[in-house]
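Hey,

The postdoc asked me to send both predictions to you directly instead of through the lab channel. I've kept everything plain text so nothing gets mangled by the mail client. Protein one:
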Amino acid sequence: MSFDYESLVGQLYIVSGRALSVPPPGALVEVAPKKAARGREADTFFTLVLPSGDVVAPTRFYEGMAQLAADRYFASGGSVTAGLRSVFDTLNQNLVEHNQQSKRHYEASMLCAVLKGSDLYVAKVGSGVVLLLHENEMLTFPENLSDDDAVYRAPLGIHPMPDVRMSRYTIGGGSRMLLADASLADVEHEKLTRALAGKSSIEPVTAPTAAAGETAAISSTPTADIGMALVALKELLLTSLKANVTALGVEFVPPETPVPLNVREGESTRTLATTKTSEMPAVKLDPQKRRSEQLNKAVDKLKEDAKSTLGAAALKTADSMDNAQKVFTHYFPEPDEQRKSLFSSPLAAAAVVLIPLLVVGLVVVMWLGGTDQSEFDLCVNEALRGSNVARGIVSTDRTGMRAAWNAVLLQIEHCNTLRPGGDATLNALRREGQTIIDALDQVDRREGIVIASFQGATLSTIVLQGLDLYALDNANNLVYRVQLNSDGRSAVPNSLTPISDMRQGAAVSGIQVGDIIDIAWAEDAGGSSSGRVITAVDRNGTIVSCPARFLLQCTATRLLGVENWSNPVAIVIWQGRLYVLDTGASQIWRYDPSGGVYASPASEYFSGQSRPPMQLAIDFDIDSNGAVYMLLSDGTVMRFRRGEREDFGFAAFPDGQNFTTANAMFLNPNPMANVLFIVNASTRTVYETSLAGTFFHSYRTFDESQFAALSSVVADTSLGMIYLASGNTIFGIVRDQ
């Protein structure tokens, strides 16, 4: 895998006013390993773990967190942001559980960055800042470094759900990035800009180490290399009397760009941590060279493994071959120079050359054939030993039991990286561990049933009516229909049908359809005689209605007052009225039916100047009594009646089940089961509550990767099923089991 850019990486570590010549603990840069998850092959992961709280952990604690973060990211699937959130969720859970069972409580702040294509994703939990240099202009994350609430956030290890902040930047060759602790927030912006540009005459004390990457950063032309930039920053900070500073600096350069430093090849900043920084040349990581070095390391490891297990047998075989060669030499000695024998022929000469090569080949084959198996078996045995320990923990020790089984699940995940595809023993062990932890956390685990998959699609909304499922594909701006079998657990073969008039660019009733924002079902849309229809609305105010039985007979009209719309995100049809959620205008526009169409101007659901904060609103629904439920992206639900806000709050959630992000909601209209469903892609969970917010259930699948991109949910009480859109697939889970 070729990279667009390579990375020069250096560290700055100031303790008690002295610049140390060793890399700071918790600083790590990794390129994708050989067995990275699909979509991660060209990514580069940067992280800086910083102590937080009153207790400072041993150095190996922060180094272990950094390595676990890199391993977790490259093993995760889905988008970059989903991978970063998975990193923070995993580390936070481990830290919280450690603090619950240990007398020494540790907290940590973490900065992460990922280079992918021409995008740089940055994220943080706790305190810390990120600096980006672009054509002598400094960009910062958080944007306002004088805002203490943005710079100093809750660290890992305190709350069940980490407080994750993310941003994305477009970058290019010559750009520079700095991950640093919060002390840099107090330094003048102009001075930081000048220092990161390398405008200093002091000789370097910390030579860059480095790693590689593919993409990233701001297009700039620095005046000096990254080493000089860190020296300038060191001078600035020591002058400013900054007693303690930890920073990781990166410069991105094209592979063919000459580097004004003594560059050598490397693969990870972790492997360089044992070398004194002052003696360490800069590293310009060539991914192809990295692969070669990995192979050399693997061969060295094979040689070591040959001293035990199957490797010992290989050595014995080599010894036997060596003895055979001695016998060959004894009976067929080298001929006298004055005499020629049969074995002075080319055939004999070839045999003498080939025999050692065959010996070496046999030994290597035995190494390769045995070592990987032995490593995997060792990993499985370790997981089995951990499970035996976990089973021996008394049931009253819930914290210890949860921590032990989580450790087993992490070990199983590591084993699966050694042998992708799964193993029967590990699968059974993972199911056992999940079941026990789920019982502690009150999670209902289900099999995820694939109902339908759409090639090249990104599903954003699904609508269920009877046995018909409708799905909006945001990637292609197209609506599909899928028919379910009578049990609701599978789709009728060949029933997946695109609705030709519900797509961007279609001409319906002389109107061209634009970007579709949402779809909804209506028994009598607009009061027309068309009966049951599936309805779509685009950003231009075009409403397209297609009868369920005649999807080729769609009609379209234009809504009035669209010029007042700002950012419409969702629609609901309730009792024939059309409601449009407009977060930009902090309003819900209501259209009443008239003469079979929505011909009248929109009315405002919220009247007056006092309107609820709706910038984070992502979805809404209306119950049978007319109460409006609005979901925000931070997991908050607001309830309104006749435009007035009512009290609403979640209750009775188990420990660790509270959520701070959400993706979609669904209000079950069945009067016998008035419940609210909320999906959370970050925890890969579907929550079910009462309409008052009381916790009922939380559902997850055994294969949690299925729910990595949850975007929509519907349910049917009569079928006993919950349907969810995730990525390009509609999944079904059995609600009552």
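Protein two:
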Amino acid sequence: MVDVEQALALASRPAARIMRAGRVVACPIDETRLIVIGMGAPMADELPAELNDDPAARSLASIVGWPLASPLTSATHGFAALLPTDGADRPLTTVRFGQDGTGRRYIFTPRTVSISDAAAILADLAGPHLQGMLDSLVDRLMGRPVGRRLLSAVITLLQSGTASDGFIELLGETQDGAIFLRGWGRHLVPGVCRVVVSGESPAATECGIATFPRQDAPEGAAGFVGLLPVKEPLRARDIEGLVYRGRGAWRYARVHEHRVIAGPTETPGHIRSVLLQTHSLPEVLLRLRAAANSFDGRETISALPLPVRMGIDNVVAANGGVLISGWLLDPEGHVQSVRLCRQRAEARIDDRWTRLDRSDVTDAFTEEALFHKALDHHRHSHGFVVFMNGLGGDVAAPLHLELKLKDSRRAFMPLAPVARIPARVAALRQIKSVDAEDWALSEIVDRQIVPFLCTAERLSPTVTAFVDAGPFDAAAGPPIIIAVGEAEDGDIDAYLGLLALDPETRGAPIAVVLPTEWFRRQAERIRQRAQFYRLSLRLLSADETSDVYDLLEAGVRALTHETVVLLAGSLLPHRTGWYGKLVAAHAALKGSVISPTLGYEDHSVRWAGSWPSAQSDRPLAGRYAGYPLGAVSGLKLTRVAAASFECCIMPREALMTAGGFSAGYLGSQQKGLDLGLKLSRTGIQSYWLPSVQMLGSDEASDLGAAAAALVERIDQKIFSARWVRRQEGEGNPVERGSA
């Protein structure tokens, strides 16, 4: 008699001659189960099973049996039994089905077989009962979570019979997260059926199926479309096939090798092309209709036959958040919700936006027939501003707005965020676009602009070019980094003259940092003037800068000196010798930040140290403001909460470790205080040197008085949000005292 392992190579022999009563073959399905195939007497659907005559290896076997086409004296039925295993790699010798004393004992063939070999044995042994047997077997295999190895085994079993059914020819991803399928098959039933997606990561789900007539399909087959509601990330290109429950049996539809993959904007068109021909349950047709009307990259709001229109003025993306301003005209209240969408992520925005008056929108639609009777000419709150953060999805994926109407229709507006615009510029543009007298301005600032700025990231300012106008590298002493903005354009020549007249600064290394555009226009003229004065000067061109602090930071990043002197181009030394005094004070207090007194041109105090404040919303405050400079010039070097970075001497590494100046501030005052507190938290001490004075004016603003006051209020809110709560929890990190 021939053993099974020898008979596998003899596929032409009948199963009855290959199998022997009392012998069984084992096939591991996955890490925890195996199939045992054999012949014998009829058995119940479930029986106790014992492996290797070991009472500790007892389990409950699930058995599928069938009558043999050619019964033997010793065996009238074939069987396939599913046995759980503990995953241990041990030889299989015997298996007993049934209770002790009454059970039937079988001997395993020496080696296990692969699933493909097991499928061939079952096909030969089951004969005309193969399809029913496979369906029962797969039913039991699919009754638990399906892994990739188990699914592969199921597909192999189904393909060994007649369970392969058609092909999937098109797969399309949708903006709603579902995957659209189109193909043909013989056994697909319209409605909702259980399916398992075959691929890198098998997924069990419910699929809505609709069928439609296809003249190019084989006889007895029909076209089908389906929607897979994917809960976890699954790409259409990773799908290899679909195991599904068809008419009374499990089937497998394979993805055709020449399949078409459609993207989210192409898929709705493919669905619309067959939607009117499909047949299925109403709930499935509704799902297909919704998918057919999903976003395909086009603006569809203007095509609505209702008085609903929308326009977008600005869209700015910053650090995963999006600031949107525009208008929505909906005088009859047809819109139920407005959502911001990206890939499979979405968030409602109409419950968090700020509305503002836009009479221009009312005027623009007054003469249109659709809006003529609907508009209320006493109400103009059509505008909106909204900041949405934490939307999720791929930040590089396209954004769009979805309007859901009360009659379940949807309409879409694609969004194109402005690329690489600084958050500060975007916020200032938004503020300038709103009438200062508008009742909504305060809410726009508090609910939209401040959160937008608080989450904004800042590109570090960098030096893109430099020109030496003297022996900069050979000069001794800490370099003086001077930030010269366009406001100081006309004063740079006189400034260089003052530096040349002071013996200390004439020989010091001087780095003048200019915005890129001004550098291109003025670098040659400044270089010639520096050479005339015989200064050791280096001109630096800085990019990604918005104010004097960004220019100073760019200069610090471009140099490698251990200690640097920062100086805003708007400040002028009150007397010569200031540089030497700062350097001497820093030599005695290495690792600290030391600033002089800042005064106005009338010789009154503008800044004389930042001190801890008792006000809960302002953790730092100034002293001596308005005093004559002479009243403080005799005071000693004093410890303060934060230095002024308009003029100071400091370790270069301190600024680098702190990450530079923080993003989000519209002005410079709170931006400087912010860095001062960051340095204090890292143990860097700050001092005020009263005996040195610099003269200059406050930060100039081209926004107008009202907008400038608003900018100051915004910066104070951002500063308080970042520091007040932190200091309440930690206690004030700065102690009063003097050196």
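Summary for protein two, as requested: The CA atoms of residues 192 and 208 lie 4 Å apart.

Thanks,
C.
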